[in-house]
Amino acid sequence: MDSLLQAAKITKSFGGFRVLSNCSMRVDPGSITGVIGPNGAGKSTLFSTLAGFIQPDEGEISYRGESIRGLHPYQIAQKGMVKTFQIPREFGALTVLDNMVVSYPHQKGEALPNIWFGWKGVCSQEKQIRKKAETLLEFLKLSDLKDEPARNISGGQKKLLELGRALMLEPYLLMLDEPFAGVNPKLALDLMDMIRELRRLGKTFCIIEHNMGVIMTLADIIYVLSEGEVLISGPPELVQKDKRVLDAYLGMGII
Amino acid sequence: MVDLLQHILNGITSGCVLALVALGVTLVFGISRFASVAHGDYVTLGAYFALVANRAGWNLVLSGLVGVMACVFFGYIFFIFVFRPLDRRPKIASVIGSIGVALVVRHAILFIWGTEQHSYQVAIERGIRFMGLMITKNEIIIVITAFILMAFIHLILKKTRIGKEMRALADDQDLARVTAINPLQVITLMWILALSLAGVAGLLLGLKSIITPYMGWDILLSAFAAAILGGIGNPYGAMAGAITIGVSEEVSTMFFPPTYRLAVAFLIMILTLLFRPSGIFGQKVEVK
Amino acid sequence: MASYFVAMASIAFIYCLLALGLNLQWGHTGLINFGHVASFAIGAYTSAILSLQGIPVVFSLLAGTLLAGLAAYPIGVITIRLKEDYLAIVTLGFSEIIRLICLNEMWLTRGPMGLPNVPNLFSSWGPKTNEWLNMIVFLMVTVCVLLLLQRLIRSPFGRGLRAIQEDEYAAAALGKNVVAFKMKSLIIGAAIAGIAGGLYAHYMSYIVPEMFLPVVTFYVWVAVILGGSGSNLGAILGSMILFVFLEGTRFLGDFGFIVDKTRFASLRFVIVGLGLILLVLYRPQGLMGKEK
Question: Among A34, A58, A110, B106, which is least packed, fewest CB within 10 Å?
């Protein structure tokens, strides 16, 4: 099977401090890939590098067969690989619905000529986009909040909104950075169901998580990062028992 | 060849004056993190107060001191009433505030002294010739004064405790604030230094050319170019950048009309921002 | 008396246009453009030069507008990716360079002597210009630009701008080409200033480089902040208030003060500067802006 995302030997240093060493990773279509590791292991940095926010010093990144190294984040997102943030970055002043609607890509109304000469087309597309957004909000159980300014909703709801906005782009690959952090257990179960449902509908997931219970259940394959390197990768059962993984976590004082 | 050397020499002189302004600008940027658009007008303020003292018969040194004290006094008032309150807001607020200050200072000067040109009362000296090059006594004073001040700043930054704190604050604000460094003390000293430098620059600039209400504003752009070239926030960079810009501007007059000197500074600034935005001495900055 | 009012209103509309342009760049997009007067100058000089060559005023105005917009492109390319402070300084430098070019290139702009006899908007209709017609045209242009801008802001493009202002990294992560958004804003704002410049040139019929000093940029900033950055109507309100103040106090110098008139003029600008400081300190959202 051809991989959806393939990262080879990613290396990155910041001012003499090496944060990523020779990281290689492969995400297959339709899979849920987990990325775990102690704090400071470089997980978020890896995601940021893959999504184009950081340029690697060395290494190759290919997505759906083409190299995406050097592309801007917005270009990578437009290709269907969307990353969310560890701490939700909602557009606070916009309503929840507007947060969703604005995320839709390639809107006619964003092109200047259409604004003044093709307004009818813009308005009709706008209706379609709103409908899609409202459908997604229902799926995410956020419908009641659609007219609320996004800054007013709770942390857990903001995380769902993050996911919702990413979904508006109809991505092939969703890179979620700690989607379950700070989420209450009931919501976590809902979120797990949503992710599974989305995977059933054809989406691929790559998820950074600290919540072991969740990620071991959800993921098909797990990569363990420690001090900027990939320690091991494999199915959850294998990874859980691996001595190196336990050492890495114990070494950091964290289980 | 001699012609070129003469221009280089002139450039070093003007670069020295520029260095004092650029230092002030870079200090404010490094520590208070905003571009002080009013800085040129502080220079003008210093020049005019020195003029008042000079007219009253005082010699250059004392007049310069008066100019410096005026700069520090008024500049500090603006710091207390405008920039310190704005410190917690987005930096753009401070920049806009500095525009307001610039307008107030410049037009107050225009109101009090009018638009005519003035000069300090110094004896007209013949230049000194050496190796085929010409330099006036005033220019020698300017260069020596500037170098003394630059050395003084260097000593403060490297050898004193508060100088080290200043560098720490410029390097990493948040980190510095959680240590025992008292930011208010450091910021106050920074302003006093920057304003004093502006005051001296005013005197020297007035000595070198003429005193007009726009004199400081006219070199502000070059000062920013110098600070950016050297790596904004980096005092040594500002000094080196200023000399470079001064020399470049002077040498350019050999090929282009003198009114385009500013364009030279601007071009250097653009090239720096395009190819090495962190400046020659700054650390590499990730450009998104 | 009516003639005076018409003249004042005409200039006021020019200021409104300038404020609308800057408001798009700063209020709606967060670009610190300290070189707005450059776009004004490019529009003015281009239209003046071309119409003096015999080109019909309508086309020369169009050319001025386009050139002003295009000139903003390289500036944007250089600075939009960098920190906001750099945009401020570079745009400031840019406006000074433009002014220096106007001052120096005698063959093009007649340097400090300026360009006299710039044809009026209606010169093809006869030698006597109708001031009322001029003012109405200016009014219509202003209203037109306002409506076009309101449509722009209410469109998905405007919504994208709001998202970018909230969090440009999040917007980029969601596929928005932030640089392109900002660039379009910069260029359109510059083009609007270009229209203002062209209209100004044909109205004054004589332009000199001194009309395009950086201080003009800062007046427009005061107007935009006064009215409330981000509100187009606020921009108009702010520029009206500022203009009334500047024009209204112009006469105080006539009331036999000890100092002469030009020096007294400076006092007004001191007040403008103080006003800006107070605004920034105590009411940064201006008169019509939202709480930031």
Answer: A58
